[in-house]
Amino acid sequence: MVELNKSLFEYCLRLGDSSLIAGQRLAEWCGHGPILEEDIAMTNMSLDLIGQSRTFLTYAGEIEGKGRTEDDLAYLRDTMEFRNVLLVEQPNGDFAVTMMKQFFFSAYLFLLYKELSKSKDTTIAAIAAKSLKEVTYHLRHTSQWILRLGDGTEESNQRTQNAVNDLWMYTGDLFDMDAVDAELIKAGIACDLNKIKQEWQAMITEILTKAKLTIPAPDVWMMKGSRTGKHTEYLGYILAEMQTLQREYPGAKW
Questions:
Q1: Over pLDDT 70: what percentage of the chain?
Q2: What separation in angstroms does the CA of 22 have from each of 90, 103, 188, 217?
Q3: Do the beta carbons of residue 224 and residue 86 sit within 8 Å?
Q4: Most buried among 77, 103, 136, 241, using CB within 10 Å?
Q5: pLDDT per position as a tens digit, 82-105
């Protein structure tokens, strides 16, 4: 039981951290969106993701049993202790990059939460079921933008294609599995990411094809490492900004 709880704690960190960093990146667009409506939409998606993160990190703290709260886990861990997927920590770039990154991640979360809503862990199942409603909107919103940008002007198509080319190497990390996954799959708690990968590839292929975008070769090199705390250089900068207040004023309360 102790080992299972250890794996469950790690799994919840992966889920919570990925949504937290994705939400933090989207929050950077607040006040800078190309149009007011989109500025509000991206901010709302950011809040959805951070809300999802809060529930997973709160549950992680309960499982760990050391008294750490969602705030402790978000603000008082260092880069190597974070387990977010590499994709979400990549820079926002232009609007096409942000939409492509969020499209890739939203498709992943949609399929992941659909499976996790059937988890034998009732807390994870409940969080996934609630979050699925939110990411369904995220997926619809971002896929519509990919279609609009890809099948738009020559410049919008090229920018969107560049986004695909630059981000594709980080998508393999979404489906990387280890002993933690194996143990929780056996217990009926986690889901097999190999199954999700096939569905994700089909979904991505359909939208990118309609958007007149070229899909990179399936055997292209993939960067991995998030499962063991290995990240790109960008995560450190995100955490430095996100954790500043709590680091400078430990235990600060509003």
A1: 99
A2: 9, 12, 27, 26
A3: yes
A4: 103
A5: 999 999 999 999 999 999 999 999
**Could you identify the residue written with the tokens 């992680």?**
60
**Given the structure tokens 């896929």, which residue do they identify?**
143
Let me know: does 79 contact 236? Beta carbons within 8 Å: yes
Write out pLDDT tens, residues 34-78: 888 898 999 999 999 999 999 999 999 999 999 999 999 999 999
Contacts of 66 (CB under 8 A, 6+ apart): none
Q: Which two tokens stand for residue 187?
A: 């217990």
Q: Which CATH class is domain 2-248?
A: mainly alpha
Polymer length in residues for the chain = 254
Contacts of 243 (CB under 8 A, 6+ apart): 74, 75, 76
Handedness of CA 141, 142, 148, 149 (dihedral sign): positive
Give the model's confidence band at 1: pLDDT under 50 very low, under 70 low, under 90 confident, else very high: low
Residue that the structure tokens 């094809």 belong to: 209
| Spatial CA neighbour of 171 closest among 106, 116, 117, 92 | 106
> Residue 22 in contact with residue 56, Cβ under 8 Å?
no
Gap between the Cα atoms of 102 and 144, Å rounded = 12
> What's the pTM?
0.95
